[in-house]
Amino acid sequence: MDDPNLTFGFTEEQKLLRESVLGTLQRVLPPEKIRELDKAGDYPYEACAALAEAGINGIVYPEEYGGQGGSFMDLAVLGEALGYHYGGIAQAWGITCIYAGMHITLHGSEAMKRQILPKIISGEMRLALCLSEPDHGSDVASIETLAVRDGDDYILNGQKIYNSAAHVAHNLIVVCKTKPGRGYDGISMFVVDTTLPGVTVQRLDALGRHTTEANHCFFEDVRLPGHRLIGTENDGWQGLMKCLNVERLNLAANGVGNTLKIIEHALAYAKERQQFGRPIGKFQAVSHKFAEMQMMYQTARAQTFRVAQMLDAGIDPIMENAVAKAYTTEVNWKVADMAMQILAGAGYILDQDMQMMFRDARVGPIGGGTSEIQRNVIAQRMGL
Q1: Residues 280, 306: one domain?
Q2: What is the mean pLDDT of residues 320-346?
Q3: How many domains does the structure of the chain reveal?
Q4: Are residues 208 and 136 located together in one domain of the fold?
Q5: Which of 44, 228, 263, 294 is packed most tightly, with the most Cβ within 10 A?
């Protein structure tokens, strides 16, 4: 990631941010540590703490709560650097600071912001987002998890699935209904303490992203104080969509960074691996694969940064963001598949990094809104 063209158009502050992230992670999360965590299925606590100590958590949060009030372009630069180093640390950081934390920033009460945001910024508090349900997946309008008023409190019942890092979270952002029935009306969001009676988190054995894990969360008669409601009762849909816009930008940036890491990994192998008296990268069948990988990467990166610039300009790029999320995560997976083919047997061995990058990249077109959902959004914005 030493190409000076990679920082073209960056401000000096963004260049320093990128260097800080990469330097911190190279120190606390070297390749051998990543392999160890992936094999054991352990969360990257030390790396997350180091990022918080370096001030990285505060980049996206307002200054009045201890953050730095960064731009969307800052987030794209940060997300790319995290994804480049390791997809697992990108996800671990994003789950607390973006996927869950943004709901507090954009829609939480003033008291909630002052209670929670400084703890996120310092690294003291971890969050996770609970959205998908076993029977409904991406169909948010049909979710059944229900919070019913009981005096000044709510009683929460239901279950959520595929909740990354919920097993290490102090609080969960739970998307539920406060008005039963199908439809977007009646959606609300709550901050749920994972130590409350009736909250159960079960880890799932997933193909990849072993350091953040997927989880199945159960809520049985969980009593929530009224002040744990985020925003207004029954009016959570628009807020959810606004936060998902930020999530998708971050996911796109993560995918871009990780794609470059995979290309570099495969390229180093292709320059060293000898067959028939010359490096395999000299064969057109292989070199053209790299040319295609580079073309896809460059296109994905340009689209991701364009979305960040549009958001900074006050534009709501719903279609462009859907394009960025779908395209970059699909490119990430396609490049991982091509790199696996280039490394052949060497990539398939479990003590090599390629198989881990291959496994981890597969979830990209699924999580954060599937590629099919993104295509629905794109088609709708086209009037179809």
Answers
A1: yes
A2: 97
A3: 3
A4: yes
A5: 44
Token pair for 20: 């800080």
- pTM, two decimals, is 0.95
Whether residue 51 is found in the same domain as residue 109: yes
Helices (H), the chain: 12-28, 31-40, 45-53, 72-85, 87-94, 101-107, 110-122, 236-272, 284-312, 318-343, 345-348, 353-361, 371-381
CATH number of the domain residue 293 falls in: 1.20.140.10
DSSP string, 308-349: HHHHHTT---HHHHHHHHHHHHHHHHHHHHHHHHHHTHHHHS
Residues 379, 280: Cα–Cα separation, whole Å? 42
Query: Same structural domain for residues 224 and 267?
Result: no
* pLDDT tens column, 40-88: 999 999 999 999 999 999 999 999 999 999 999 999 999 999 999 999 9
Is pLDDT above 80 for 303?
A: yes
Query: CB under 8 Å to 254, separation ≥6 — which residues?
Result: 79, 80, 82, 83, 87, 90, 91, 94
What is the C-alpha separation between 261 and 267, in angstroms, rounded? Answer: 10
Do 136 and 211 sit in the same domain of this protein?
A: yes
CB burial of 231-257 (b: ≥16 within 10 Å; e: otherwise) equals: bebebbbebbeebbbbbbbbbbbbbbb
Alpha carbon distance 105, 58 (integer Å) = 12
**Structural tokens at position 172:** 């969960």
Nearest to 177 by CA among 155, 153, 204, 202: 155
CB neighbours of 206 closer than 8 A, spacing ≥ 6?
A: 213, 214, 363
Q: Residue 268 gets which letter from DSSP?
A: H
Residue 20 has a pLDDT of 96
The yes-or-no verdict on residue 138 having pLDDT over 80 is no
Distance CA 328, CA 317 (A): 16
Of 126, 156, 172, which marks where a domain is finished? Answer: 126
- What would the pLDDT profile of 204-227 be if each residue is shown by its tens digit? 999 999 999 999 999 999 999 999
Cα–Cα distance for residue pair 190/195, rounded to 1 Å: 15
Q: What are phi and psi of 86, to 5 degrees?
A: -170, 125
Q: Give the structural domain span for 348.
A: 237-381
Going by the DSSP 8-state scheme, the letter that residue 97 receives in this structure is I
Q: Which residue has the tokens 């508090």?
A: 125
